[in-house]
């Protein structure tokens, strides 16, 4: 199955996994989940459905991690080879993953609510521009707020580059050595998927008062066919952005034309609502898995 564009994830490349013989079957299961995610990541398309697939894949990966941490072999190994620096990195990593997932989910929920409010206003509208302009401005402000939140999330991803950068000497315990390597791979693939998702959610430049000739000029310069193809390559968020900009254009006072723009925006907002719903469910599932993993780590490392 295809998923994430390699262009948007080049800063978070994940190495192929090659470890010694595995003493416990849970490590094999975890490696299989990692390889599935890498296969999806190497696909050619980046759309809402594949991002949801990736997030659910991450949730399954962290379920595997939780099982691995709670296995008798892992707990015994960690109890025998306590290392303060690595223990702190494990806890710090789990906290950063939780924070990143939570903030992304909050941004999606906020944007979903704003889009629904605009959709509701369009349904009540009788076609007059002034009656919906304030709702459109509210939507645009919400997109700008999302841009700031995404920028903060991307900044936190950069801080995760150095997690597990310096492993303690774990070679004396083969199982713990394998576990450490798998956890690092999991951290890298998590950063990679969230990096792609955040770029997908990042708002395009959206002006409250676009030039009434902006789209016309674009069509003239690029040609109708090229402009159409470009629109087809847009994701659901970008299509709503274009539809919202079109609602603010004042190039025509024709009520039929205005009604057509409103109807087009409503259709795109309905699609966007479904996208946000899918993201919300997938992020909720991942968040729960991350919580279980952190609780397991806290229980193990506190002994």
UniProtKB/TrEMBL annotation:
List the GO biological process terms.
root development; shoot system development
Question: Could you tell me what this protein is called?
Answer: DUF241 domain protein
Q: Which organism is it from?
A: Corchorus olitorius
């Amino acid at each position: 199955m295809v998923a994430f564009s390699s262009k948007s994830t080049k800063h978070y490349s994940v190495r192929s996994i090659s470890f010694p013989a595995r003493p416990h079957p849970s490590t094999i299961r975890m490696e299989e989940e990692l390889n599935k995610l890498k296969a999806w990541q190497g696909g050619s398309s980046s759309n809402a459905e594949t991002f949801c697939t990736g997030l659910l894949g991450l949730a399954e990966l962290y379920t595997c991690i939780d099982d691995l941490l709670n296995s008798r072999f892992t707990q015994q190994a960690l109890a025998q080879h306590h290392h303060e620096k690595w223990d702190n990195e494990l806890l710090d990593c789990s906290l950063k993953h939780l924070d990143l997932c939570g903030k992304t989910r909050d941004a999606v929920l906020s944007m979903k609510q704003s889009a629904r409010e605009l959709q509701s206003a369009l349904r009540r509208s009788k076609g007059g521009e002034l009656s919906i302009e304030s709702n459109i401005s509210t939507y645009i402000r919400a997109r700008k707020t999302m841009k700031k939140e995404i920028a903060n999330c991307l900044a936190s991803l950069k801080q995760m580059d150095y997690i597990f950068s310096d492993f303690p000497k774990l070679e004396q315990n083969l199982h713990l050595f394998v576990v450490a390597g798998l956890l690092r791979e999991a951290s890298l693939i998590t950063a990679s998927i969230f990096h792609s998702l955040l770029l997908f959610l990042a708002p395009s430049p959206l002006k409250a008062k676009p030039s009434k000739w902006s789209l016309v000029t674009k069509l003239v310069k690029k040609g109708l066919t090229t402009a159409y193809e470009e629109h087809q390559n847009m994701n659901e968020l970008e299509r709503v952005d274009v539809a919202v900009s079109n609602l603010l254009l004042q190039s025509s006072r024709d009520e039929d034309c205005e009604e057509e723009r409103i109807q087009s925006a409503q259709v795109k907002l309905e699609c966007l609502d479904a996208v946000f719903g899918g993201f919300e469910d997938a992020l909720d599932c991942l968040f729960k898995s991350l919580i279980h993993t952190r609780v397991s780590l806290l229980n193990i490392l506190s002994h």
